[in-house]
# Entry
Amino acid sequence: ECRWSLVVRTGSGARMDEELVSGWIVRVPRPDALRSDLASAPSTDVPAILAGAGFWYDALEAMLELVERYPDHPCVVEALSELLEQSGH
# Structure
């Protein structure tokens, strides 16, 4: 288990606001069925497969790799937005 926290600062000078956000990451092994699904999936499907299995950080990492590979592709940018909406962010 790993606990993370982040301070988000907005504004400037005397009008600066701070918000503390934190959460937990629990490292769990990927089930064999998930590994099998990922091995046979095209890279564009990997984020959705991971998110569907509840591996949100892995899904985000896979999505960001797609954004790096295809930065101007509207479907990839839209998929990143959808993934973030699904996760509640």
User: Anything to note?
Assistant: The longest strand covers residues 2-10.
